[in-house]
Each structure stands twice: as structure tokens, then as C-alpha cells.
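SAMPLE LOG
Freezer: B-3
Tube label: C17
Construct: single chain, 315 aa
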Amino acid sequence: MNDNGMHVVFGTGQVGIALAARLAGSGRAVRSVSRHRPPALPGTVEWVAADVTDPEAAADAAKGAAVVYQCLNAPYTKWPQLFPPLQRAVLGAAERADALLVSLENVYGYGPTDGAPMTEDLPLAATTAKGRTRVAMSQELFAAHAEGRVRIAIGRASDFFGAGVRESTLGERVFANAVAGRRIDFLGDPDLPHTYSYVPDIAAGMAVLGTDPRAEGEVWHLPGPQTVTTRAVLDVVAAEVGHPVAIRNVPKPVLRALGLVNPLLRGLAEMQYQFEQPFILDTGKYERTFGPAGTPLDAAVAETISWYRTERGAA
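STRUCTURE (predicted):
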């Protein structure tokens, strides 16, 4: 039912670009929206410049949309202040276009689960500032859906990794350092199971939510590589780069102390609970409904390292 009409993707970060490419590759009409033109966008994708802090600009960019995808983000240090207005503008744009809104979320809203796997029916019981912001944003979407203002589908993913992902727990501090033969800085216990989400899998899942009517009105945990411990992920990284990868763990008191003068580290310290207990995203609901999905861990790591090697060679 959503195959006809324009698919409008707000955001041209890693997920937004991958999602636009996937939708265009399946023959759908796609428009990408961002403030600045991205360096790489499939030739069949229309690009529109818009400052989404302006709701009218967002609405103009979404004209004619059958599906709107919210893949925007905000600077980590100003997340609670800047992110809600961005989502609100995209929500308003989808409402005015009478389009399905597919929104990408993280899992901050659940808060600590004492190691229990996260399922879609968990209460949103966040205890952090960023987590409470995420809860409020989710509730805005549900309220708009309940009031009949807009149809929604929500996809949730855990910590991102993949080509182009730098600012992530499994980003530059891991892959760039491993490729260069340097130690990896890790904040938390690497011997606990932790779900990491691979960007192409996130894009694939979001595309399904935007094109399968069974997704509407629901929250879906997006599949990815199998969940293992972070140390097991780093073992795969070491095998791929061909040499051991040493880990330097940053103790929590040190991180908190550094956070007194560094806003980014202060934000990371706030979310540290995710690495002090098993952190497992249960994707069974999605796979029971739409079928098996997710890239094998070895392949996802190999693709990510290949990108970082190319970047290092070009530097």
C-alpha cells in the first residue's frame, strides 16, 4: 500500500543515506532531505535542501510523500534541547502530507533492565536525562497516532556500527584504532553480552516498516548481527585486521571526573549503565512477522574494517 508515491527520508547520515539507497534500489521514488547536500547519494534519489528547525520548511520538503522516514539526530551534547523540535517538525510534515511516519529510535527509553532482554512491550522507564527525552519523544508519536493525526511505525536499534560510523561506542575508537594497530578505548565491561546494530540492517528494517502495512501502529526492534560479548566482537575485529587488539578500559570514576570538564564524556557517563549489565535487544517480534534478517557478524565487521582501511589510505 506504500509502494506508490514518494518516500521522503529526513536525514542524510549513515542510516538516512543507506535507507534512501535501499528504497531507490527497489524501484521506489525517493527524496532525501537535509540542510547540506551529502557527498554520496544514488543518482535516482532527489535531494531537497531544508532546515528542519523550520516546520514550514520541513512540511514543504515532504509535499507529496506517501511515507516519511525520521532519520535525523542532534548533537550528543545538546540532545535533550535540540532533538525533540526536529522530530516535531517531521511529525508535522508527515501529518500535513497525510503520510505514514516511520521513525528511527534508540533504546534509551527503556532504562536499565538488570540484564533482561529488551522486548517491545517493556515499559519506558528511563532514569537518565537523554532517556527521559527519548520517552517524551516516543509518547508524542503515540499520541499523534492515537488521535488519528498520523499513522506511525517505530524502529528501534542499539549502538550503531558500520561504514562511516565514527561517533559510536563501536565507531572510530574501535575500528580506526584497530586498523592502525593502536589500543582500543572501551567504556564498560567487555565481557558482557551487548547488542550492536549494523547500519545496512537498520536501513533494511526501516524500509520494511515503510512498505509493509503490518508494521503500522507498532514498535519494532530491528534485527542485526547476533548478540555476543563486546570482547567476542573485538576478537572478530582482531582476526580481520590480522593482529591482536589490546583493550584499554576507562574506569567509571575516571570517566565521571573527565565529564566534569568535557560535555561529551559527561553524556557518555550518563549512559554507562548499558555497559555494566547484559544489554540485549530481542528482535524476535520483527523476525516472526517479516522473516529472518540481519547480517552475520563476521561479514558486518569485515565491511566496516574495509571502509576504515580505505579511509586510512586516503588520509
